[in-house]
Amino acid sequence: MTPWPTELIASRHDHQLARLAAAGIALALLDAALPSPLPGIKPGLANIVTLYTLETLGWRAAMWVSLLRIAGAGLLLGSLFTPGFWLSLAGGAGSLLLLAASLLLPARGFSVVSRSLLAACGHLAGQLLLARGWLIPHDGIWLLLPPLLTAATITGLLNGLLTLTLLESATDET
């Protein structure tokens, strides 16, 4: 029997991304267990991990953590490849696109809180565009925009403040 020609060795960075993705999955599971005041409104706690990763390791790491979290949570919740999974993926993609765009703009105008607000709005936009194009092909879906945008603004603000606190406590420890 011949040995494998290459052996994959996980780097310290790989382990760090895996830990962050696991934390994101845990928060996504907690998020799914929380009661929702209205269908489709969740706090998006797992986005805290994506924002933390963006601020500490950069956009590419945040993208991997976000995608791993979405796939892992979908697998554990039994929703992998269901419409809910695709909505989550579309929301994650919208969020990541706005986060990438925010990195191209002057840093003085963007804190982790403002990036969190952008990410929340990007998440909502991605989900609504997919829902309009695939699940509910009717313009009536736009009537959901005011309450969903209000919820996205509130949760984006809270998640941004929580991420800021987490980043400040991590800085204080070093």
TrEMBL record:
Keywords attached to this entry: Membrane, Transmembrane, Transmembrane helix
Domain of life: Bacteria
Pfam families: Hpre_diP_synt_I
Keyword Transferase appears in the UniProt entry: no
TM helices/strands, residue ranges: 20-41, 61-79, 85-105, 141-167
Record InterPro entries: Hpre_diP_synth_I
Protein name stated in the entry: Gx transporter family protein
Lineage: Bacteria, Pseudomonadati, Pseudomonadota, Betaproteobacteria, Neisseriales
